[in-house]
Amino acid sequence: FFPQTITGNFANVIHGLNANHLTDQVIQRSKRMILDTLGVGLLGTSTEVCHKVTQYSKIYSSDISSTIWGHLDFRLPPLYAAFVNGVAVHSMDFDDTWHPATHPSGAVLPAVIALSEAFPQKKKISGLDLLLAFNVGIEVQGRLLRFSSEARNIPKRY
């Protein structure tokens, strides 16, 4: 395990999460968050900014590829697929929010899906694994947000 520092403690908590920590309520809320994010992301694929990042990203290619939402015939390396799909979600700005202001699912879901698609066929992850990865990403984001003194000042600045 990791050293007993703030960062080490944080890493130990995150590393220790597993599917047994997903309660029925967490699973149901996660599914709703995922569906909402996919819907907003699909709508966002029609925005000008999404068209620009999609065109820009076409210069990248790889043997490992992930889907660009709304484009069945276009795939990119996972890093760029997560970027393009994340831009699609955020371009609409209707995805879920927390206080202080952040959009947790729009940052996590595109990365989780892009990475899950990059696994070799014989090592594909299960739906439960995907839900766990999604929730670990949300947990990391939430804890980092709580640690941030900048985040605490957001309501005062706007």
TrEMBL record:
Q: Which GO terms describe its biological process?
A: defense response
MF terms in GO? aconitate decarboxylase activity
Taken from the UniProt entry, a GO cellular component term is: mitochondrion
Q: Where does the signal sequence lie?
A: none
What Pfam families does UniProt report for this protein, alphabetically? Answer: MmgE_PrpD_N
Task: Please give the Gene3D superfamilies that the UniProt record associates with this protein.
Answer: 2-methylcitrate dehydratase PrpD
Where would I find the MmgE/PrpD N-terminal domain in this sequence? 9-152
- Organism's domain of life? Eukaryota
- Record's family? Belongs to the PrpD family.
List the protein's name.
IRG1 decarboxylase
Q: Which organism is it from?
A: Eurystomus gularis
Q: What is the lineage of its organism?
A: Eukaryota, Metazoa, Chordata, Craniata, Vertebrata
